[in-house]
């Protein structure tokens, strides 16, 4: 009798479930809007590039604007005041592609150069002093053969030439300079409280 019930269960329920979830999955895929956004990051040496982590990109952009504008409302970029070292990623960034390669001390021809295209909002106040032309790109450099352009950062190429993307999360939250995990702690807190109160209830 028990065997009969198990067989009936297997025959009726087991094939039905994968099929249903398969159909659900198809529906989900079709409902999701597809984004055809252009890739914003490119390698000026013709190498591989991705847009990397948008949180890091936004933060680097924010810090870069703070330092390059230095608290003034100067939106005109002169030659040789277009570079900034950003500690978050420990890299130099140039605003615009007009002068960076003349920056002999900081620009290294042995490295690969990357360009990150700012969107309309990000570049709306940025012009060259010389001729008032708009500035489109932020330029930075990555270690040739070891790194590739990855948003406003460099990502590692591993020893057998694979592009290591997405970047590995840090093993411990306090290793994370961008505090990605701080938000998830606050969302776990209510569950922790429930578990603790249930535990107290039974003891
Ligand atoms: C430009 O990018 C910023 C940061 O990613 C975003 O907040 C903003 O909405 C974008 N603007 C446009 C016009 O896409």
Task: Please give a quick description of this structure.
This protein is an alpha+beta fold and about 200 residues long. The chain has helices spanning about 1-30, 55-70, 120-125, 180-200, and strands at about 40-45, 50, 75, 85, 90-95, 110-115, 125-130, 135-140, 145-150, 155.
Could you describe the 3D structure shown?
This protein has 203 residues and is an alpha+beta fold. It has a domain of 128 residues. 35% of the residues lie in helices and 19% in strands. The protein has a five-stranded antiparallel β-sheet, covered by helices on one side. A three-stranded mixed β-sheet has the order 2-9-10. The protein is globular, with a radius of gyration of 25 Å. The protein starts with a helix and ends with a helix. About 16% of the residues have low confidence. This is CX domain-containing protein. Keywords: Signal. It comes from Caenorhabditis briggsae.
Q: Report the span from N to C terminus.
A: 42 Å
Ligand set: 2-acetamido-2-deoxy-beta-D-glucopyranose
Structural class by sheet pairing and helices: alpha+beta
The outline comes out as: globular
Helix content: 25-40%
- Give the percentage of residues in beta strands: 15-25%
Strand order of the largest sheet: 1-6-8-5-4
**Regions with pLDDT < 50 over 5+ consecutive residues?**
4-29, 180-186
Nearest-integer average pLDDT:
75
Counting DSSP H or I runs of 4 or more residues, the number of helices is 4
Number of strands: 10
């Amino acid at each position: 009798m028990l065997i009969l019930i198990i067989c009936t269960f297997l025959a009726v329920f087991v094939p039905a479930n994968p099929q249903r979830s398969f159909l659900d999955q198809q529906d989900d895929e079709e409902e999701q809007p597809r984004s055809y956004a252009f890739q914003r990051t490119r390698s000026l040496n013709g190498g591989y590039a991705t847009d990397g982590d948008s949180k890091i990109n936004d933060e680097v952009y924010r810090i870069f604007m703070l330092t390059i504008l230095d608290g003034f409302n100067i939106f005109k970029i002169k030659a040789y005041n277009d570079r900034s070292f950003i500690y978050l990623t420990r890299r130099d960034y140039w605003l615009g592609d007009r002068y960076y390669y003349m920056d002999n001390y900081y620009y290294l021809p042995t490295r690969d150069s990357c360009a990150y295209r700012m969107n309309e909002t990000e570049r709306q106040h940025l012009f060259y002093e010389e001729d008032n032309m708009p500035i489109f790109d932020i330029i930075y450099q990555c270690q040739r053969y070891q790194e590739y352009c990855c948003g406003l950062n460099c990502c590692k190429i591993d020893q057998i030439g694979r592009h290591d993307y997405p970047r590995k999360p840090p093993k411990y939250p306090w290793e994370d300079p961008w505090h990605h995990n701080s938000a998830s702690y606050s969302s776990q807190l209510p569950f922790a409280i429930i578990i603790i109160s249930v535990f107290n209830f039974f003891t």
